[in-house]
Specification:
Strand content: under 5%
Radius of gyration: 19 Å
Order of helices and strands: HHHHHHH
Distance between the termini: 27 Å
Oligomer: single chain
Number of strands: 0
Number of helices: 7
């Protein structure tokens, strides 16, 4: 049972191409204007948008249209925020943290569910999966905040502008709060939307190992 509509492959490609064009524009602007932040954020985000297609083509990892849009949107909205919207729209940072956290949670849930399906000897209760998703996202959020803190130290020491920065304790607490919201959404609705992806991932694992799962 799916709770959200699933975009067609054609619509997914259109959305992805549109976001990629905007990212190319940001990258070109950064190069012309000599803005390192725009270059790094735009370039890295643009590369990430090609990851779903590369995984599916080269490694046969199943990426359905909805998941492809999800991955692309996460880096796209972050890059827009870094370009200007973080300072102009107060809630934009909360949106990107929730979206990014939901993506991390989705990857964690899919991997866990694929392991569960891969072997009859392993059974992972739904309650454990719920807690696992929350713990993974919270841990990732803490590591991310430490990474931003380290960049702040490097920037203060070297005078080099970093693509990421912390903005005080209140901002860090809010980031972790919205990370938790994104994790809760996936923990609650992940079974309805990601089980099919996990099953296809299991099939890929079986095909590669030549086994049938035990």
């Amino acid at each position: 049972m799916r709770l959200l509509p699933r975009p067609s492959v054609r619509n997914q490609k259109r959305l992805t191409r549109g976001m990629q064009l905007v990212l190319v524009g940001i990258l070109v602007y950064g190069i012309v204007a000599g803005a390192p932040k725009a270059i790094s954020n735009g370039g890295i985000a643009l590369l990430i948008t090609f990851v779903p297609a590369a995984l599916e083509r080269n490694y046969e990892v199943p990426i359905d249209p909805w998941l492809g849009v999800w991955i692309t949107s996460a880096v796209f909205f972050h890059t827009l925020g870094s370009a200007a919207l973080y300072t102009r729209i107060e809630w934009w940072d909360h949106l990107t943290h929730s979206l990014s956290a939901s993506l991390v949670a989705g990857v964690g849930y899919t991997a866990l569910r694929a392991v569960d399906l891969h072997s009859d000897r392993i059974r992972i209760p739904d309650r454990f999966a719920f807690v696992f998703i929350l713990v993974v996202v919270l841990a990732f959020g803490v590591v991310w905040e430490l990474f931003e803190f380290a960049l702040d130290i490097i920037a203060a020491t070297t005078g080099v502008t970093m693509p990421l920065a912390q903005h005080g304790l209140d901002d860090t607490v809010l980031d972790l709060t919205y990370n938790s919201i994104g994790a809760l959404v996936v923990a609650t609705f992940g079974q309805a939307h990601l089980s099919g992806v996990a099953e296809r991932l299991r099939e890929g694992l079986l095909a590669r190992s030549g086994g049938s799962g035990e």
